[in-house]
Each structure stands twice: as C-alpha cells, then as structure tokens.
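Hi, here's the filled form for the chain we discussed.

Project: internal
Contact: R.S.
Residues: 102
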Amino acid sequence: CTCREYDAGYMNPSAVELERKCGFDRAFATWEECHRSLTSFGYDAKRVDGMRTEAVPRVFPSGSGGAVWSSINPYAQWLARRTVLSQDDAYASLQRIAATRA
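And the returned structure, exactly as it came back:
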C-alpha cells in the first residue's frame, strides 16, 4: 500500500479540461472515434489498442454497425486519483498495525 504522486497538471486541471472529462461519453459510433477520444485524454495509443483485445475487454462492441462502448472513463479515473488514490491513510494505518505486531 502506498500513496501515489500525480502530476500537478493532472490533479488540478483547468476548468475547460475538467469539463471535458466530466462530459466524456463512453458510447462511440466507431472504434476509431473511441481510440481518438481516449488518446486525447492521455491514454497511450498502444494501451488503448489492447483495451479491446484483453481477456476482459475494456472497450467492446455495442450494437450494430461498428459501435463500441468504453468501460474507461477519464472523469472517474481523475476522481479516484484525486480522492482515494492520493491519500496516505491506508499506508499510515498499515504502518501502525505493523508496528503493533512487531
């Protein structure tokens, strides 16, 4: 368990970037549109390519005509990093438990 550090620009996005994350729509007409959108949020292109071929795909077909759905949500990721993953509460608690058990 560790407290992760994130780039200040990511943790404190501009109002425009925050609105863009908040407005992210996970439904796309095509794979190419989905790929373009995810990479625009900073996801590595190679990583995005793998999202639809993993054992449990994070991008998968939705309906007909090549539409896809992304289980990836840049806004949810930002919220998680901003709140839960940037706190050191769990780390501090585990240290206290370890010290008590020693």
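Let me know if anything looks off before we file it.
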